[in-house]
Amino acid sequence: MSESRELLNLSDDPQYQQLLERISSTYVEGQRRAYQVVNEHLTTTNWQIGQHIIEYEQGGKARAEYGKGLLNRLSHDLTLRHGKALSRSGVIRIRQFYLAYPKGATTSHLLSWSHFVELLKIDDELERVTDPIAVMIGEFSQ
């Protein structure tokens, strides 16, 4: 039997279709889980970087004297080492993330870093806090 006939026979076989579906489902689920884990670590990593920056700025004081020079120098050096994810705007965003969520991003397993970036654009703190809750409620009700 030629290879093309064998392939045609397989495509009609219900057991083959089940195998195909099981493999596809496993693959898609694996991708989803990997994305979720990577995103959770990225969010945690960015929060920790923000914490390092704030602690350095404060230098043991209760409040920091915010220095633009530090972020410019830091982002320049980090971009040379790690690429544009740690550019000036990225470092500012990461710093802002820590300030907005000083106790940690407890919803990081439900929201992506991109979600947090969008939330950081919201000036109203109450709205920034309730938006992720609305997202979570929407996901749980589906």
Describe this structure in words.
The protein has helices spanning 3-12, 14-58, 68-82, 88-100, 113-120, 125-141. It starts with a helix and ends with a helix. The chain is built from 6 helices and no strands. The model has no long low-confidence stretch (mean pLDDT 82). The protein is mainly α and 142 residues long. Helices cover 76% and strands 0% of the residues.
Instruction: Note the run of SSEs as H and E.
Output: HHHHHH
Helical fraction equals over 70%
The stretches of 5 or more residues where confidence is low (pLDDT under 50) are: none
Whole-number radius of gyration? Answer: 23 Å
Q: Quick one: biggest sheet?
A: none
Query: Hey, roughly how much beta strand do the residues contain?
Result: under 5%
Report the count of strand segments: 0
User: Average pLDDT across residues?
Assistant: 82
Based on secondary structure, the structural category is mainly alpha
First-to-last CA distance: 48 Å
Number of domains: 1
Report the total helices.
6
Shape assignment: elongated
